Amino acid sequence: MRFQGGYAGTLLKVDLTHGQVMRQPLDEVLARNYIGGRGFTSRLQYDLIPPSVDPLGPDNVVIIAPGPLTGTSAPSSGRFTVGGRSPLTGILGDANSGGFWGAVLKKAGYDLILVHGRSPRPVYLWINDDRVELRPATHLWGKDTRETERLLREELGRGVAVASIGQAGENLVRYASFMADVEHAAARTGLGAALGAKRLKAIAVRGTVGVPIHDPAAFDRLSKELDEMLRCDSRSGQELPKYGTTALLDHHTAIGGVNVRNFQEGIYDDKEMVDGDAINARYLVRATGCYRCPCKCDRSTRIDEGEFAGTHVDGPEYSTLVAFGPSLGNNNLASILKANEMCNLYGLDTIETGNLIAFAMELRQRGILTQEETNGLDLTWGNYHAMLDMIENIAFRKGFGDLMAEGIVHASDEIGRGSERYAVHIKGMTSPPLDPRSVQVYNFRYAVASRGADHLRISAPGAYGLDSLPMQEAASKLMHWEKIVTIPDMMGLCKFPYSYYAETVERTLKKTLEIVPALYSAATGWAVDGDELLRAAERVIHTERAHNARLGLTAADDSMPPRFTEDPVHKGPSEGKRYTILEPMKKVWYQVHGWNEAGIPRREKLEEFGLKDIADDLERNGIDIRG
User: For residues 568 and 404, what is the distance between their CA atoms, to the nearest angstrom?
Assistant: First the structure.
């Protein structure tokens, strides 16, 4: 038996064009080299999706991968990754989600789902342990994610977990999400649109097989140790259950790094009207958590009175709070919760949606867009009714929303008249909420992330202090954290409790580089240590970089928008700051990674990580991988 535990040893290949589902063995070499989760989606994107593929075409492959620890008794082990060519950016795409669906998929006995082709009509995939079939979904098409889940549970019975696209995915909004359990979004890069183009509405799963464990006693002991560590830590055990990620609004206010009015200002004057304390006082029902998570960072909220009475949502988390609050100059907290609910039901990336609306509001501020051009919507700062109308218009591609649904690059190109100057994006994906002008070395991560402007490829406790170090040393430390954060993504673990939320750096390192390797070894029977996991993580990083290089990306694409490099921050502790370290930081970043001056992995670096086949393929595609 090749796999002794951790892995089910089986993948599902779904051929939508011909309506077929095939069970195939998982490749042991893939598992050993790339572990799972994001490791699988990154390598398989390179192998299965040629450069010429249209992200919304039938030849794009959507890859769904839990990790070897997903669905086990390890704390916070409900994560899975969705990968494929991004409809938003046209480059490497992936998104990570929690909840319970990923764990149920793993317990049904599957390490991977590969979705090929395009169905002639809407379908859903029904996985009932070893019984798998495609079923008609015409009755689900046009329904939101909550209604889709309700109907499938009525149809299929108890114990069913559902992940689906909403109307935004059906309408090919280029930043549509894939929603697990209604409330948990695999959001970034728009893979909900790729599923919509394939006419795959949902995947419903009942999993009763469980996840095999090679050494159950050792695994149970390590899981309990980790659980206790997470509960006793003031950040993972106290801050997360009390505030979720909304406490970041306080942290980012202290350094003047909040996205206010499309990154024009660094602090929000009405912060106390929308912060974590305000949510807890007015709308919090209870703190909730994903599968096996003691940290409970979800905020189950409900509005019982006023114009948004009846709204209930697991949120907002920090990025959503800023996207529909300070980013739009909006201090109406109830409307932020409503916006969050609408995005979850329609299946929209909240960061991208909020940033597109902020972009439009700044164009209105500067006289570039008129109210007539936005179909009568008064897109002035703080107008939350217009915000909510825009969310619906984007999801259903109505009026001006049809243009916004195409993403910020297409929208700014189409509008013209200098609007490009206010489009805050990198590689076609808009920026996360922390302003990089406030903390420069740490937020260099936006420029070089493989998905576009991205805060989740590197998360590092204590990283704000990197600005004080010599640049070479700072780059080396940042790369180390880049690898550490990749480990939970491969394992099917949540990066919040494992790599960011900890009282000390030492505690994070113990969790990720000591206990997680021991858990993986106990689960699989394959003895690995922290250094081997760091090496696997670096292999993923080089693979992703090579993937984008094959698509034509070079150092010129590792950029920062003019909003950050040319405009100073207005207001707050970072007032007057511009982003000034891009080019020198790129130089040392490429050096510490072993990439050439174009930001492309050198042949010797690729071969060092067993990637000679990728090196050869890059050269066949005319990519210079010399030093």
Answer: 27
Residues 420 and 543 in one domain: no
Kindly state whether residue 238 falls inside one of the protein's structural domains: no
Question: What beta strand segments (E) does 213-294 contain?
Answer: 284-288
pLDDT tens for 317-345 read 999 999 999 999 999 999 999 999 999 99
Q: What domain range is 191 assigned to?
A: 10-206
Q: Are residues 335 and 421 in the same domain?
A: yes
Whether 239 is in a domain gets the answer no
**Distance (Å) of CA 181 to CA 83, 145, 164:** 19, 8, 8
What's 569's domain CATH number?
1.10.599.10
Q: Which residues of 314-336 are buried (b: 16+ CB within 10 A; e: fewer)?
A: bbbbbbbbbbbbbbbbbbbbbbb
Judgement on whether residues 402 and 452 belong to the same structural domain of the protein: no
> Residues 401, 549: one domain?
no
Task: Please give, one letter per residue, the 3-state secondary structure of 471-518.
Answer: HHHHHHHHHHHHHHHHHHHHHCCCHHHHHHCCCCHHHHHHHHHHHHHH
What is the distance between the alpha carbons of residues 486 and 537, in angstroms, rounded to a whole number?
A: 6
Give the model confidence (pLDDT) of 51-63 as tens digits.
999 999 999 999 9
Burial class of residue 573, CB neighbours in 10 A (0-12, 13-18, 19+):
middle
Asked if 402 and 446 sit in the same domain, the reply is: no
Given 396, 430, 464, the domain boundary residue is 430
Same domain, 342 and 402: yes
Peptide bond into 436 cis (omega under 30): no
* The dihedral sign for the CA sequence 376, 380, 385, 390: positive
pLDDT of residue 500: 87
397, 468: one domain: no
Strand partners, 176: 348
Q: Are residues 456 and 415 in the same domain?
A: no
Q: Report the C-alpha gap between 93 and 87 in whole angstroms.
A: 8
Domain count, the chain: 3
Q: Tokens for 201? A: 């509405």
DSSP for 546-557 reads: HHHHHTT--GGG
Closest CA to 288 of 39, 78, 580: 78
Say how far apart CA 125 and CA 252 lie, in whole Å.
Answer: 42
Q: What's the CA gap between 595 and 363, in Å, rounded?
A: 39
Query: Backbone phi, then psi, for 362, in 5-degree steps?
Result: -70, -35
- DSSP annotation of 176: B
- Rg of the Cα atoms in the chain: 23
Average pLDDT over residues 293-306: 96
